[in-house]
């Protein structure tokens, strides 16, 4: 994360009433005046408690940015989470609030000192679960020390380095843009080397609504391996919040390569259709037949767009996601069944609540593994009769009324709606290079996003970063 340091007087942050004991200046790091070792309790100005923050990290940075000119700094002390593991409170304390504890009972030859003096100041960053924003509260606003220059606080020193990097990076970007907008520079500069192909669509206000990008390395790979591709959206790649459709190809030897990238304003069928037509034009320009199989998640808008553009292409739905969706429905039902059985057969063995919960989780895990084995018998049945036999057996195994919702879900959502997209009796006739899940597509997401380091860049910086990753990946293949 790139941090921009802003002083309170620059943004007009209101402060609570407090006593500013001295004007802090880093040049005044040393003084000949004697400072009392234990000054009386005092208060420093506090940041406003009104603002809301998107993350606890942003709140932490804002508080320390405010505190620096007033001679103090805050560090994280501890945190609390909800029962579901969601962070809800981060307790902050003065960085002078630590208590020095020696690690040896032996008398030290060299006398050491510490700035920690058990300062009682304490405040918290708390999550508002309704608005999903963070706010500040103060528990104890007193300090037992005098203000000190920012250079004496490690937290403030860490905040300054990203600011220097941010300034240098900003200057280099401005020089590169030379008065152009990032999108203008993207369209003018990146195609100059002949490495990129861009196609885009604009709305009535001339805003880009869909941007299709294809790299020269992608063309080289696609020319030899056009048969099986996968599509999946990833997020948090750019400052505009645009979803990125990542299109990935597979080779018969098990390698993965990027076919194309597309930034889209929404995930509607019309938008997907625009991007897929651009992909079809790339196939046409290379004289290639359209892909034999496309692997994706069960996203209706994307699947309908594929059917519209690539009419003869087989569509396969990620089997891993199917299993995960079934598991989310099944595990609560398995837990309910086990809980009912427990009530009917009360154990004489004394157990604590923690032991009972642990045993329940283990029993649910075992029950899910057994259910998954039965489900796999259905998925991988090699004939229609074997499929029907497996499905009948599965229904008999889970004939308890408590499992009626999961049986209904499997039948309506998968077996009746799209059996040809994942059942082996259908996919065995497709060319899919043994790919049945989008996990390698998600690995391809990671390969690109690792190069970004930030999700707040414009599309020019994003594609420049992606180009480095694509070139390295192509060299490795």
From TrEMBL:
Residues 228-325 form the MULE transposase domain. It comes from the Eukaryota. InterPro entries: MULE_transposase_dom (IPR018289). This is MULE transposase domain-containing protein. It comes from Penicillium atrosanguineum.
């Amino acid at each position: 994360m790139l941090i921009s340091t802003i002083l309170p007087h620059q943004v007009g942050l209101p402060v609570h009433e407090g006593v500013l004991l001295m004007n802090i200046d880093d040049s005044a790091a040393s003084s000949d005046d004697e400072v009392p070792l234990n000054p009386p309790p005092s208060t420093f100005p506090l940041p406003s408690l009104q603002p809301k923050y998107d993350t606890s990290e942003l709140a932490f940075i804002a508080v320390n940015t405010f505190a620096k000119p007033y001679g103090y700094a805050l560090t994280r002390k501890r945190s609390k989470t909800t029962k579901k593991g969601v962070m809800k409170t981060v307790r902050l304390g003065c960085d002078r609030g630590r208590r020095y504890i020696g690690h040896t009972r032996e008398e030290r030859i060299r006398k050491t000192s510490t700035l920690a003096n058990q300062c009682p100041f304490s405040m918290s960053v708390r999550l508002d679960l309704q608005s999903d924003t963070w706010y500040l509260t103060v528990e104890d606003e007193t300090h037992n020390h005098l203000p000190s220059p920012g250079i004496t606080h490690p937290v403030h020193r860490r905040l300054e380095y990203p600011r220097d990097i941010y300034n240098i990076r900003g200057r280099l970007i401005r020089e590169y843009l030379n008065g152009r907008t990032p999108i203008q520079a993207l369209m003018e500069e990146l195609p100059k080397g002949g490495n990129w192909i861009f196609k885009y669509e604009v709305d009535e206000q001339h805003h880009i609504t869909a941007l299709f990008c294809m790299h020269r390395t992608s063309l080289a790979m696609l020319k030899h391996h056009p048969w099986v591709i996968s599509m999946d959206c990833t997020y948090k790649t750019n400052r505009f919040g645009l979803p990125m459709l990542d299109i990935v190809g597979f080779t018969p030897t098990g390698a993965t390569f990027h076919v194309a990238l597309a930034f889209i304003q929404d995930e509607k069928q019309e938008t997907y259709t625009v991007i897929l037509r651009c992909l079809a034009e790339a196939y046409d320009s290379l004289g290639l037949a359209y892909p034999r199989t496309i692997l994706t998640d069960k996203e209706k808008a994307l699947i309908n767009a594929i059917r519209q553009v690539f009419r003869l292409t087989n569509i396969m739905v990620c089997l891993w996601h199917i299993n995960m969706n079934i598991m989310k429905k099944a595990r609560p039902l398995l837990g309910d069944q086990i809980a009912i059985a427990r009530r009917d057969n009360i154990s004489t063995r004394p157990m604590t609540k923690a032991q009972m919960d642990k045993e329940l989780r283990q029993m649910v895990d075992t029950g899910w593994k057994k259910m998954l084995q039965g489900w796999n018998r259905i998925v991988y049945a090699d004939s229609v009769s074997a499929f029907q036999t497996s499905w009948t057996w599965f229904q008999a195994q889970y004939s308890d009324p408590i499992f009626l919702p999961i049986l209904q879900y499997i039948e309506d959502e998968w077996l009746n709606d799209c059996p040809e997209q994942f059942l082996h009796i259908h996919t065995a006739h497709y060319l899919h290079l043994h790919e049945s899940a989008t996990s390698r597509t998600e690995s391809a997401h990671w390969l690109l996003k690792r190069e970004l380091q930030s999700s707040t860049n414009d599309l020019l910086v994003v594609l420049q970063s992606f180009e480095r990753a694509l070139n390295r990946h192509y060299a490795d293949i």
